[in-house]
Design brief:
The complex is a heterotrimer. In chain B, 68% of the residues lie in helices and 5% in strands. By secondary structure, chain B is mostly helical. In chain B, the strands form two sheets. A three-stranded antiparallel sheet of chain B has the order 2-1-4, with no helix packed on it. Chain B has a two-stranded parallel ribbon with strand order 3-5. By secondary structure, chain C is of the alpha/beta class. Chain C has two domains: 1-34; 48-174, Glutaredoxin. In chain C, strand 1 (48-50) and strand 2 form a beta hairpin. Classes of the chains: A alpha+beta, B mainly alpha, C alpha/beta. The interface between A and B is large, with 67 and 58 residues.
Chain lengths: 546, 395, 176
């Protein structure tokens, strides 16, 4: 490894800009500058030191801030492109239609092109994720390459720096003083600086006051937080860390919670409330009036949560332990044992029971009523000894006849149809009738009686999302570390003031801060006044003015 | 007078106070001495007193409306824009307390005044919240975000002052052109306010029926004369202007009409101003910033980003994720508004890296600050009005 | 020189770990997420259900025998179509150590009994009222047939209507 030997005979690694020992500028370029670059305290950024193997070259690529910023900008642009049209997850595709056709129909050629180019599902695409992954690599490598040398440089700071370092700082002052005056100046300066809460270190004829060094590590700490956050997001993809399921449950029914073994939930009641006049406080505008009785106020499912006793065994509902009753509302999920249930959707007025009247067609006289529980119909409904209705077939979601056989599209009673056998005193052998909503067929001939539809009872169904995310604590920790780091780095500044007496009888002052020069100047000004030094000048502002 | 009327009056007082303060700040700058901390006392102090009165009134508006509505007044376009204006003034007050610079006031208050005027073009009645928005996390998330954005906006204010001072108007350049574009876009906002105010004072109302993307026939009411019609529109109100052309279903022609009207009126206004002043608007306002210390302005711009960035991160990302986890079942849903918050965040992250590691200071930094504000405004206006998502306030 | 080699070594390791993590992420998202699913080769989740005759069937009790699970519903045409075939296959393999358990998805007792009697089915018929068995097996499409060997491992998962010949072949494959 090549070394750069400074005039003070200290050996610096290649790439160093300012000697770690005395602070002399080491490159021609830095020598010519009036104010030196203090970003990493003049240390060599590690990656710039080696350029040999293939691995090193990859490493150096990711270490570059230019590459990092480019990756940020690429991510930003791709993310923006993804908002031009709704993403696939927000687009509803009707059955029997292709997604691409939906895009084309809604957004024309642009929509089609957008879909073909993969922008319609951009955030899940391998190239978007690769870019974000590369950004993460860049964060790690760039931080390692800069953070470690900076830490070392700040830890091993020398109190006395070379005059050429001092005079290349942005804020400088120079005063001619004899030895006695200088000693007094140093005392006064130390007092003032200490009262301003600087850490003061002194050596023979030199002083270094420092404040807020920790703020220099803020960026590295926030990068650690970001990496923890990103790893949390990646960890979600490992099986078992993340559950995303949903379930429908009707009022009065109990169902197993998918994704969480051994838990069951019963829907006691679904509640939908809308705003009424009272909520609107007598404002008289058309817009507000429109909200009355139409705008939803509350979606809520009252549930009972059960857990299976002992080791969960699917199908075993004999020993369910009641855990408690809860109200799940939008924005108020039910949280238990690491999983959460959210109110996501609802369906109102699903048929629950149907009541029929057994009526004589000619006399219109009724022999009695039967009520059928559509989720659990009985084989026979007895009205009295001679009168009963036998249920022969039941089709909860009747669609059509196929080969003479009625078909059902699902198990949900959306359009119930029945084949009844009506046994009456007049017809003790029974008459058969096919009954569906607004449709009655008599397959075996005209009947004396009919099942006359009377009334229905309905109930609601709730759709709940089941979510379990074991990575949330990791994400939270990452977020907190990020916030701590970014706050450290943003709200505090690292201030340093150097003071030294040269052999030719001058007292030199130099000051540097990584930000907030306005306050730094106030500090320096106070030191200059109290220690009787010539007031500082701002070399950068002077240069601007020229 | 009920609380809502009171809160409306307070907002009006704040608006007038801000306008007055702009004029007073103009005086303060004109009489300014070289030294920063001992600026012309009379004008400067008067301007600050008026600004503070306005700000107090503005805060009282916010509080009274909150009490009346029983939810934080940040739930629709009107409320959000006024809150943004209020917090920009708040951010300016902090910056003034730190740096005592009147030049910032002129630009910051102008932006606040424009925002409040913009807000008042939207319906201001209190509507009850839908269940998804009922959460104290939402309140925390939105208010923190607006505060963060207001502080970030101060960096654009400083950047604009920096550019007005440093860009040369002597010969045409890209910089000069883009600076004028910034001025023009401010005039377009005035155009929007003017056109909306004129037609609403005339009670302009034209109803149409049209076919939406789901092939349903629906109705829509225009409050400005329809330049563009909705998809296959038919007029329901007789004796009103017919649209010049119909738009496909995926484009909301009503909003497009408003935007185009704003540009037409804004452009006319801009043309009149140019005729009247006989030079670019940026050059017209340049004397106001003549005495500015640009190194200090650069530092203020940078500090505003440093102060605003953590607040923005906390509000727009951290609190947003916590709320989303409660309300939408997942902390991140790639909703357009959310994505644009991420874009804003990435942009300012890039800003900080470029400044820290690539030494992008001065003009480059100032331009980035102005672009950052443009992104914030895009997220606020365009994403709300054009890209409908879970966050859309537009109804 | 040694420091240099050490550095190269550390860098290679860090890069390799990062590349592996990113590739895994991209791969998992590309192949459709991380949902925990029951796959062929997995241990079949244990369950207990009561059939229409009141007899309890617990999967673990059938260790040493092959088990064919058939999830179905009356609204699903291929389910209905394969039932007679399954019944024939059941009769052929009942004494050869292959148990058939049919699981209806949360329909009413009436519908299932009616179906069983009109199709004349002989194998044990159960109803998964709470859908817990269905969820344990991640059944999202009917019919679904699971072939479980004598060690309790899932050998095949079939999600289409099956013919009698095929049923017999599959049963043979799980015959102990």
């Amino acid at each position: 490894m090549k070394k750069i030997v400074c005039a003070c005979s200290y050996e610096n690694p290649e790439g160093t800009q300012l000697c770690a020992q005395c602070g002399r500028p080491l490159t021609k370029e830095d020598e010519e500058k009036k104010v030196v670059d203090m970003r990493y305290d003049g240390t060599a950024i590690r990656s710039k030191t080696y350029k040999t193997s293939f691995i090193d070259r990859i490493w150096n690529f990711f270490s570059s801030v230019k590459v990092g910023v480019s990756l940020i900008v690429i991510t930003l642009v791709l993310a923006a492109i993804g908002t031009f049209l709704p993403q696939i997850m927000f687009v509803s595709v009707p059955p029997g239609m292709e997604t691409i056709d939906v895009y084309e129909e809604k957004y024309g050629f642009f929509g089609k092109a957008y879909y073909v180019l993969g922008f319609s599902n951009i955030y899940a695409s391998w190239w978007f994720q690769t870019i974000v992954g590369m950004l993460a690599v860049s964060i790690i490598i760039a931080s390692l390459d800069r953070g470690i040398p900076l830490y070392k440089a700040l830890k091993h700071q020398r109190v006395r720096r070379h005059a050429s370092f001092m005079k290349r700082q942005r804020l400088v002052s120079e005063t001619v003083e004899d030895e006695k005056q200088a000693a007094e100046t140093f005392e006064l300066a130390e007092q003032t600086l200490k009262s301003m809460r600087y850490h003061v270190k002194r050596e023979q004829g030199a002083l270094l006051a420092e404040k807020g060094r920790f703020s220099r590590f803020g960026p590295y700490i926030n990068h650690v937080g970001l990496i923890i956050f990103i790893s949390g997001v990646m960890l979600r993809l490992m099986p078992g860390f993340y559950v995303d399921e949903s379930l429908w449950v009707r009022e009065g029914e109990t169902t197993a919670i998918p994704g969480v073994e051994g838990y069951y939930i019963k829907n006691n009641q679904f509640i939908l409330e809308t705003y009424d006049e009272k909520d609107l406080k007598g404002q008289d505008s058309e817009r507000v009036e429109q909200a009355i009785n139409t705008r939803a106020k509350n979606y809520q499912t009252d549930v009972t949560l059960y857990k299976e006793d002992g080791t969960p065994l699917a199908g075993d509902t004999a020993d369910l332990q009641k855990i408690g009753q809860y109200s799940i509302q939008v924005n108020k999920p039910l949280k238990y044992d690491g999983f959460a249930l959210y109110q996501t959707d609802f369906k109102q007025d699903e048929l629950k029971t149907m009541t029929f009247d057994l009526v004589n067609k000619t006399s219109k006289k009724s022999l009695g009523q039967i009520t059928i529980d559509l989720r659990n119909p009985k084989k026979e409904y007895v009205i009295n000894k001679q009168t009963k209705v036998a249920l022969q077939k039941y089709y909860p979601d009747f669609t059509e006849f196929k080969d003479g056989e009625p078909q059902t599209a699902s198990s949900i009673p959306n359009n119930p149809a029945f084949i009844f056998k009506m046994i009456t005193p007049e017809q003790p052998k029974g008459e058969t009738s096919f009954v569906a909503i607004r449709q009655t067929l008599e397959p075996f001939g005209e009947t004396t009686y009919k099942m006359k539809f009377q009334s229905v009872e309905t109930r609601d169904a709730s759709n709940l999302t089941v979510r379990k995310d074991k990575t949330l604590p990791i994400l939270l920790v990452g977020g907190i570390i990020f916030m701590i780091g970014v706050t450290m780095g943003s709200y505090w500044s690292h201030r340093r003031i150097w003071l030294q007496r040269t052999e030719d009888g001058r007292v030199l002052l130099a000051a540097h801060t990584n930000k907030n020069w306005f306050s730094m100047k106030k500090d320096v000004s106070e030191v200059c006044t109290s220690a009787h030094l010539t007031d500082y000048h701002d070399q950068l502002e002077e240069r601007e003015k020229q | 007078m009920n609380l809502l009327d009171l809160s409306g009056t307070l907002l009006l007082i704040a608006f007038i106070a801000y306008l007055l303060a702009i004029l007073l700040f103009g005086g303060a700058i004109r009489h300014k001495q070289r030294d920063v901390s001992t600026s012309n006392k009379h004008w400067g102090n008067a301007a600050m007193v008026v600004t503070i009165i306005g700000f107090i009134s503005n805060v009282l508006y916010f509080i009274t409306r909150w009490i009346y509505a029983e939810h934080a007044p940040v739930s629709n376009m009107f409320e959000f824009a006024t809150a943004f204006g209020m917090f920009i003034v708040g951010a300016f007050l902090i910056m003034y307390w730190m740096y005592r610079l009147a030049t910032l006031g002129i630009v910051a208050l102008s932006i606040a005044v424009l925002l409040i005027a913009f807000a008042s073009m939207f319906p201001s009645d209190v509507t009850p919240l839908i269940p998804a928005l009922k959460s104290y996390w939402l309140t925390i998330h939105v208010i923190t975000t607006v505060i963060g954005e207001a502080i970030l906006a101060m960096s654009a204010v400083a950047g604009l002052v920096y550019l007005l001072k440093t860009v040369s108007f002597k010969k045409p350049s890209k910089e000069r052109f883009w600076l004028e574009v910034v001025m023009y876009s401010l005039v377009v906002v005035i155009g929007f306010v003017v056109v909306t105010a004129i037609f609403s004072s005339m009670h302009y109302d034209a109803e149409f029926s049209y076919i939406d993307t789901e092939q349903q026939q629906v109705e829509i009411a225009y409050n400005t004369p329809p330049l563009f019609g909705m998809h296959e529109s038919r007029a329901l109100t007789p004796e009103r202007m017919q649209p010049l052309m119909d738009m496909p279903a995926s484009i909301n022609a009503k909003k497009l009409t408003t935007v185009v009207w704003s540009f037409i009126v804004g452009t006319i206004l801009y043309g009149l101003l140019r005729l009247f002043c006989r030079k670019p608007l940026a050059q017209v306002v340049q004397p106001l910033v003549k005495q500015t210390n640009i190194t200090l302005m650069d530092e203020i711009g940078y500090r505003a980003v440093l102060i605003g960035f953590p607040v923005f991160t906390l509000g727009a990302l951290v609190f947003a994720m916590i709320w989303a986890q409660e309300a939408w079942t997942r902390f991140w849903a790639w909703d357009p508004k959310e994505v644009w918050a991420l874009i804003t965040w990435l942009f300012y992250a890039a800003f900080l890296h470029l400044r820290l590691s690539k030494g992008w200071e001065g003009k480059k930094s100032a331009w980035l600050a102005v672009i950052g504000f443009a992104i914030i405004m895009f997220n606020f206006v365009a994403v709300n009005l054009i890209i409908a998502g879970l966050h859309s306030y537009a109804e | 020189m040694q420091r240099k080699r050490k550095r190269l070594f550390i860098r290679s390791i860090i890069l390799a770990v990062l590349v592996a993590a990113i590739s895994y992420t991209v791969y998992v998202t590309a192949t459709g997420g991380s949902k925990k699913v029951v796959k062929e080769g997995d241990q079949a989740p244990n369950f207990v259900l009561t059939d229409l005759n009141g007899k309890k069937h617990q999967l673990s009790d059938y260790k040493g025998r092959g088990v064919l699970l058939n999830f179905w519903g009356t609204w699903c045409p291929p389910c209905k179509k394969e039932m007679p075939a399954l019944n024939e296959a059941y009769k052929a393999f009942e004494d050869k150590g292959v148990q058939v358990i049919s699981i209806n998805i949360a329909q009413s007792d009436f519908e299932v009994r009616d179906f069983v009697s009109s199709y004349g089915l002989d194998f044990p018929m159960t109803i998964d009222q709470t859908k817990s068995v269905m969820r344990a097996y991640n059944v999202d499409q009917l019919p679904a047939t699971f072939l479980i060997d004598s060690k309790g491992k899932i050998k095949r998962i079939l999600t289409y209507g099956i013919t009698e010949k095929e049923f017999k072949q599959y049963m043979e494959s799980i015959q102990p």
